[in-house]
Amino acid sequence: MSLRLKLFLAFMAIVSVMVGVSLFSFQNSWRVQKRVADLTSTTIAEFERDKSLGQAMEVEGVWRDGAFVTDEVERLSHPRRPKLRGTIQTVDRDHGTIRMYGVPIMIDAATEFLDGRRTRLAALQPGRRIEVSSTIDEDGSWRARKIRTESLKESDKIKGIVTAVAMDGIAPDSLEISGITIILDTTERARNAQVELRRISLAMRMSRAALDCRFAAQNVLAGREVTAPDGEDVDPAVLLVESAEDLGEFLSKARDIGGVETAATDHGSRTLESGLWLAPLEEGHRRLDRHIAEFLSLVSVDDRRAGVYLEQTLVPFLQSELLPLIESYQADAEEAVALEVESISTQAGATARGLIATSIVALLFALALGRLVWSSISRPLLELKSAAELIGQGKLETRVAIRSRDELGVLAATINHMAEELSATTVSIENLENIIDSAAGALIVLSPEGAVTSANRAAASLLGYGDGGLIGLHFAAICVEESGGDNPIPSTAGQVTGEERTFRRRDGSSVPVSFAGAALLGDGGAAQGFVCIAQDLTERQSMEEQLRQSLNEKELLLREVHHRVKNNLQVISSLLDLQAGELEDSATANIYEDSQRRIRSMALIHQQLYNASDLDHIDFGAYLETLIGSLFSSFGGGRAEIELRAEVVQARLAIDQALACGLIINELVTNALKHAFAPGANGVVTIRFETTAAGVHCLEIADNGRGMSETAARQQSSSLGMSLVTAFVEQLEGELNVTEEQGTTFRIDFPADVGAQEVRSS
User: Fold this and answer.
1) One-letter-per-residue 3-state SS of 34-61
2) CB–CB of 333/196 below 8 Å?
3) Burial class (CB in 10 A: 0-12, 13-18, 19+), 184
4) pLDDT score of 155 more than 50
5) E-strand spans in 42-155?
6) Can you give the pLDDT at residue 272?
7) Is the confidence at residue 706, as pLDDT, over 60?
8) What 3-state DSSP class applies to 404?
């Protein structure tokens, strides 16, 4: 038998036991629930046959097969406004009617919607639950007066006057309320506890009627109208008489259901004592009628005497005589119900005890079956577990005995096959040691205390120890802690990778190494040791030092180149200055001066690079300040009335960009100083430089001078200076815009250098 079949049979046996226990529990629970249901079920209210027609009735039930079926009928003490509660069947918007329980109900302008809707008929749809208070026309048609569509009870209800009764000689089988047929469900139900519940209900209604008499009498004396449960105002004298009549009707019903002399219970037969209380109650009702008649006659003559009669006779009679009789009648019925409830409780307790007993038996059976099944598979499982542990420890010669052909036998054969394959393919401990010993890097294994437990040949050679010479040494003896601490071994919190440390050789010399280490953690996270790998960095550090020296030499050489270029440019500028001094033509001399300024702006770039730490970029703000000062001084004191302003957000520009910008500034500022202002006039030349968030440099040269005439603009556009400006703008891949508003403004936008790094202006 396979293991799967064993487990399946065991599972089915346990399920069968659980199903049996569940069926036993369900059967007993169903019996208790049935008795509770019988206890709480109701029957059709008894009413006199000759008084049914024309009586106000209230019924609850369901609409079924074209009729309203009910098993609960309540007689009302006096006629009240007809009312329907249920689901709309159809809506006729053309004729302004809806249909409920088979009768049409007219909705007109006088119909009040209690939920405040103004759409009226448009808000009503078939299938919607509503409650309609209506009037009945002379032809028997229903006319809605109030409609409620919200906060309705779940039950369906019909309230109105009985207009027809169908009788079979014993009790009405059906009745009709203004065109709606009511089918009476006369199914006989248990009459023991139900009769007592009916008596309790009648007793409570009698108490309510007696209290209503007192309430109505007090309001008669006070001259106040009272509000009936349906919301209508009622004369308290009428309510007083109707409450007494209600009490008489309840007594009549109590007499009808109290005619049985005995009622069967689980404790035997119990004699109903309702007859002992009904006779005094009926006598009390007759006395109540006389008291009410006397009270009403006094009210019509003398209110003071009526008040005395109310306080000294009518109220004491209700409180001291009539209500105690009703309470005794109710207590008798409650005692019978208590006996039935006690019987149900006893049965429920027996059911619980039986369920506990069967559950214990089922549990014992399940435990025995589980032990039997486990014993049949536990031994093979333990053998498989032991074999797996041995194979995991490296004992690949371990084999498991195959005792069955089920799943456990297949698993044992699989483990044996796995052990054979591991024996053939797994590297032995000796081969693993040879691999570690032949590694080029130094490998050292430490104990939890930091003592060397193993080291390969590379570690012994690096530190100058022979084979086995490192074993037993503490790691602090071979690793120098740079911070001066005494615990250089790795932490158990994690791994150490890429650190540079210093190892101490046997002869006392030091060797730099690239160090990596990690803790060897066992079960539970406890450190069982540490493994460290080190690589000699002596050769690499020597190469890095050579590279640094070579880089410094190249940097010095590049600075010297910039210095010599700057000197050469200054020599050229001086030669041009000498040549201009020999010229008599001022125009030609001006050309030489312009060339000098251009060369000087280029020389300033190389001077900045010579002094800068970064040879690829220059500080454009510092360069611009120097360039502006040079331009201003080149014009001498003759233009002292002109002010040069610089508004620069400093940035580091590439050499090509800085050179182009410097030449553009040189040309445009020179042009402004020469032509923008009249002789002797004051003025301002502003140079702005900033970088936008989009990575675009903006260079702006503006003056507040007299601007350019059309002729001057044409001459300027064809001049060498503007040609140079246009060429440098194209070199920057930028865009040149010229505006003339209170002077002339040149704006150049060009993309920022990728390598430029903005710095905040001081």
Assistant:
1) HHHHHHHCCCCCCCCHHHCCCCEEEEEE
2) yes
3) buried
4) yes
5) 56-64, 67-75, 83-87, 90-92, 97-100, 103-106, 112-113, 129-136, 142-148
6) 43
7) yes
8) coil
